[in-house]
Design brief:
By secondary structure, the chain is of the alpha+beta class. It is about 30% helix and about 45% strand. The protein has ten helices and 22 strands. Strand 20 and strand 21 form a beta hairpin. This is YdgA family protein. InterPro entries: DUF945.
Amino acid sequence: MNKGKLLAATVIVLGAAYVGSTWYVGKEVQATVERLVAQSNERMAKLLGPNMARDSLNIEINKYERGLFSSDIVYTFRIKDAAGKPYDLMLKDRVLHGPLPWEALREGQLLPVLALSRSELLPTRTVQAWMDSQKGASPIQVRTRIEFGGKGSAEWTFLPTELSEGGRKLSFSGGAVSMLFGNDFKDVSARGGFDALDFSDSAGDDSLSLRDVRIETQNATRADDSVRQQNSLTAAEVIVDEHAAEPLKLGKVAITMDATQVGNMMDGAIRYDFGRVAAGAIELGSFTAGGKILRLDASAFTALAAEYDAIQAKYGTDQFSMTEEEEALLRDRAMALLVPKPSIVIDPIVWKNEKGESSLRVQLDLAAPSDPKTQDVETLLSEIIQLAGLDLKLSKAMFVQAFGQAGEGTDDRLQMEMMGSELYDQYVGQLQQAGLVKLDGDVAAGSVLYRDHKVTLNGEMMTVQELVQRVMLFAL
């Protein structure tokens, strides 16, 4: 065989191999996409409950046209609010089959991939105004790389947007999110953010401004099929009602969430940090609020929420009177939440300023009663509440400075501080006289713990009745 024929044969063989491998990978891509959509819906069903997920949030493949070298897909993300109003988001996806897509080769990417994807938003009633603001262009652009072995990456780009309708205006700087997938696409990490978002409504003189927002999330599935989610959001500044007489300004905002779910059971924690809080010219200091819930039955919770939403939608208003049957149904849903003995903790709320800090911690451990239908409220509560605890610390110096911030000018501020000092002494004195708090320097501290039908108040054991008497003494 001469060299020309050998070269031609080689080209034919390589071409056939390329076409064959691309055809085979195209089948694998379709199977992977369909599996990932089903997997996403299954995860939402675990989190929300099967009925809630099916009716309120799911993903559908509306069209899958598989070609030899590429495929065209249309997805719909279906969302319904509490009133049942639908909001549909549709994505058009152009998928280039691996192992060596021609576009990747042109860009110098020589490593084999399962597929490359280019996605954009399609117009629907939900996003029509957003689409119109881009003069027909997609305001969202997604570039995805799906690798072999259950790995991949995606880059989401959100274009700058200016929207105006009636008296409402929205201005968005544009942003980006980078995502990584692993563990057969079960693990997802993402990082991104945007520089500015401004919303205003002239009808109610309402406004909201966000600056330098950053988002991070990690979702990991462990060997025992438990799922851990870690999310964080930070913002350099948040301004509410900027043009009001006393706008609320929050600086160095951070929100973190950490949750682990095994089956229907979930443990979760959330924390809010505000490095600076100001109402107009009044500097209030900084706030931290943390909370967690243990042994939450996610399916029971969503069933309760869905039942209440259904009843509310039936009456069509927030103000309504339920029938005995509806009350009994909600009661049964609520009692199902108590079976795994959930625990709710606020741990802690801390308010700081230049002069000191105050804090509050609350814990509530609950359990299902032996007879959920009993009409004896005292018996019912004594069985439901297994533990209740409260710890409070209130700094006089902190309170006085915060109170004085309401004054205008030096003299007025001093007068307000004197008034704050008098109020603190008056009420803390009454609490101390009733035995509800103790003084440690300029800090009033109180601790109460209820467990096994007994109460410990500031280290002193007593009955529930004795605690009620002390509270009544203070109230009077």
